[in-house]
Amino acid sequence: MVKKIGFILWNVLIKLQRIFMVITAIATVFLVFGPFALRQMGIPFIAYEEFLLPIAFWMYMLGCSHGSYEKSQITADIMSRILKGKPKMILQVLASITTFILGVLLAYWAWALVQWSLYTGATSSIYKIPIVWGQASILVGLGISSIYNFVYMIKDLRDAFIRPRLTGQQSEGGL
Question: How many domains does the chain have?
Answer without folding.
Answer: 1
